[in-house]
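Input for the complex:
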Amino acid sequence: MKNKRALFLTGTLVTLALIVGGSQLWVFSQSRLGGFVEPLNVPELAESTLEGSVRTFDLTLQAGTTEFVSDVPIETWGINGDYLAPTLRVTDGEQIKINVANSLPEDTTLHWHGLHVPAEMDGGPHQPIEMNAIWSPHWTVSQAASTNWYHPHLHGRSEAHVKLGVVGMFIVDDAVELKLNLPRNYGVDDLPIIVHDSPIGLSSGNPLDFIGELFGSRQGDSLTLVNGQHEPYVEVSTSLLRLRLLNASIGDVFDFSFDDGRDFSIIASEGGLFDKPVVENSLLMSPGERYEIVVAFEPGETVRLNRSLLDDDNGAPADSESTLEFRAGSALQNLGALPDVMVTLPETSLDNVARTRAFDMSGVEINGLMMHMDRIDQVVHAGTQETWSVRNLDSRELHNFHVHGVSFRVLSVDGAPPAVHQRWDKDTVLIPPETTVELLVTFPEVSSGGWPFMFHCHFLRHEGRGMMGQYLVVEPDESLDPSNHMISSMAHTH
Ligand code: C2O
Ligand code: CU
Ligand code: CU
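Predicted:
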């Protein structure tokens, strides 16, 4: 059996806790354990100041505690707070700088997942922030309106740091999106929905995992949280609601749907808005992926967002669970209809493909190799396009593929065209067992200056164990042979 999460959600839980806990008792309050009685927490928008023309954000990574179960404070990490992080919001074309102070008890990094940044500012494994140090990346925002996110990426530690709570959203706005009739009132009709794991682990002494261990569920099993809460609710005051969905889990593939099976409109993937809305009634998301959806409500109704887990064994959705309840008010502000056409996107064309590369994923290796900080795996020319053919050789294990610094288009899945909502710009894609996904990758216009970008499986347990590689972007007249290049950080430290 894949997992025993359902156990945690039933009344049996209290009884189990009593048995396990003996007389010193962990008291489970139903309210803290979910049950749709707490209003959804919406991460604050990060404050910024203008230093000349540079919008500057100050982030402090810190350790703290959070009570998920009454009277049981669990160690959590967060940014400018005990848990999770404020939402960064910037506009295409502006210059930004982010001062990241590390007050955690460990070194870490902070990676801007989905942001098109110079490799040196990327916050990957080559930009560690030592304890008590401040790292101040800066760049000019240059990409379409989109929903991105940020999280630690220290080699081997991403999983732990993300699970402890260092996860935030990073929204880019632009002039095109602003003109469309879309819900965009943050926290009211435009909500960040961060779906992720609870930080609770046996090491923290939490009874939930202790019970999980006793009953044989996988180690470190945890609850599915939304914005840090288990089963919260949200009051809806408008006829349309925009949800910016992020799968920030360590290794769960979620199949999202509403409990009444209603349709919704998918309007954007990782790289930004679609040409037009795509109507679906379910949506599969692997770790790291984002989609924006718009849902319509009738006055007075209550509906829940469900998530099923994609089972490793047969790939079928299983273990369905409601994660978030929507309660529509008796009168809703009418937001009108979604636009039929949103943006004009360049058609996918293979006319300028410079070359093709193959990536075989198996176990925790890519092309038979595990990540090595000193090894450059691929070298590409600035301003070119390539097709990357990514194959999952495993017969049961799910993987996905994320590329830093770029957006890509999914050309095909096992030779067939991708689903309509997978056709546009993305940066992370699910690779099911024994499946080949072909990507059209467009590289940055400028060289990465010897700083590598990562490509990896975003199941962080795989990534942390080595399922990651590095590519350099070089000038068009430079060699594509990795042995002719050196990684800048290595040049500096040696
Ligand atoms: Cu979410 Cu390498 O990143
Ligand atoms: Cu990334
Ligand atoms: Cu994987």
